[in-house]
Queue: 2 jobs
Job 1
Amino acid sequence: MAIKKSKEDKNKLVPDEVAAKVVREIYRMKLSGMNATGIAAELSANRILTPSEYKKNEKCSRLKWSDKVIIWILQNEIYTGTLISKQQFRLENTHEAIISRHDFNLVQQIMKANTRTTPGCNKVHLFSALLRCGACGGNMTHRTSSYKGNQYRYYQCMTGKGNGCTASGAIKEDDLTACVSEILKSHVNNLVTVDSMLANPRNQFALQKVTVEYDEKIAERKQKLEKTLPYNNRLYDDLIEGLLEKDEYEYFKVEYATDIIRLKQEIKDLELERDNILSGKNEQQNLLECLRQLNDATTPDRNVLLHLIHSIRMINKTELEIIFDYQI
Ligand SMILES: [Zn+2]
């Protein structure tokens, strides 16, 4: 779904913009903490066509998305521009990516952690898959319990003393949220350069220089290609007019054809590399946007947490260790 064979060139894969929008939306929902059932329900409710219905071009149908289809889409590397052959060979950059490698890896990380949700609730808890027990390294899961009419929400290491955890500690959700917010805020405040970095003329200049270099290389190839094409087109006329012998004609025909294919490929590769560099800049902007959002919000957003944090270790009830997952 969303990646199809080009109409002009059957050997080329191109994104199908309508379906690509749905795929991006599915990833966005997953990153915001929804599970496959929740995503499927939301898409069905919004009457979005499922892949098979979309393929058949059906207008009116059941519009029932299943968990399986959602999971299949969330695990399919094709959306990052990578093709996996039947023999399991990986071919990277075979086509335009519609999901960034970063977001794809994040989704895999969330899915691997097998985050469970409370029955009847399609949202994953704020710290699921992020919080680890400082004593045994095990996952800490969200629990709710009632005592004298009050509900308590907390995270607990599920390993247990019998399975080798010496602490089996628990932490209240409110305490955890407050503590993590505080650490994150002081962390962001230490990055005095957040804004200045983005505006840093040196960074901008370096980026500009790189793209100019690529543009020059691309222009040079295009010029060569433009020079070669008329020669190639004239070959047959030259043969007919007797300017070329048959063997000369055959020789040049192969020669020009090879040149044209090579130049076209080089142009494509250079354009892709240049665009990748530019999208790297976008990733950095996203990151800075996340950091800024964190500074403004009272409670961190799960999407922001997943972007910035690799894991949180609970040393004890008042001590947390945060391992960050980004580079500036
Ligand atoms: Zn533990």
Job 2
Amino acid sequence: MNRSASSTTLCAAVCLFVAGGTASPGVLEFENKDDWLDAIGRFVTLDFTGFAPGTFITDQYAHLGVHFTDGSDTIFFSPGAFPNDEWGLDGNGNITVAFDTPMAYIGVDFPGFLRIELFRDGKLIYTSSVFFGDPVGNFAGLLSTKLFDMAVLMDVPPPDEAEIDDLHFGPPDCPADLDGDGSVGILDLLALLAAWGTDPGGPPDFDGDGTVGILDLLTLLANWGPCP
Ligand SMILES: [Ca+2]
Ligand SMILES: [Ca+2]
Ligand SMILES: [Ca+2]
Ligand SMILES: [Ca+2]
């Protein structure tokens, strides 16, 4: 039954990719948090509680593989702006988030307006629509088949400051599906072999040891067949 529900979600996503026909296929946008949660896999949440107001957030969440890299993001207390738990992040401009391993999902609870840019290896791969709605309690969620290792959250229009209540992010459900066709097969195996001995900074270096090798090959083979 789980398999059926998962397949339905994947099919719906694929259908939307096809139906969307935009300049940036492969990314789905969600304003409804429940819909985003239904569509994604495992994820991590940062709620920004537990710090003194004004604390600069940089590498405090490094143990979760995430870094705030623009050096101007501070902890802000505002029950009005941040209904989840009253604590959030003031970007003092944009908020730049870098991930140690490539991600497929990002979601943000935020007040006001927000646009999200996704990057891979320093290259812009997606610019979202402008998310907005009620003054507080908004949600912006992306599901991307093109993995990203950095996201820039920006208020619109500039030079307003991006603020976020909670940040959520997660890795792809099926990292061994290197070509994103929904199953792990011969083309993925060939892609892994083509990358043998290199450090791609993500899949197919599945174990993250800095080189594509035998353990990564075994991981791919162990996941052979349709993605869950
Ligand atoms: Ca929060
Ligand atoms: Ca900032
Ligand atoms: Ca594949
Ligand atoms: Ca490896």
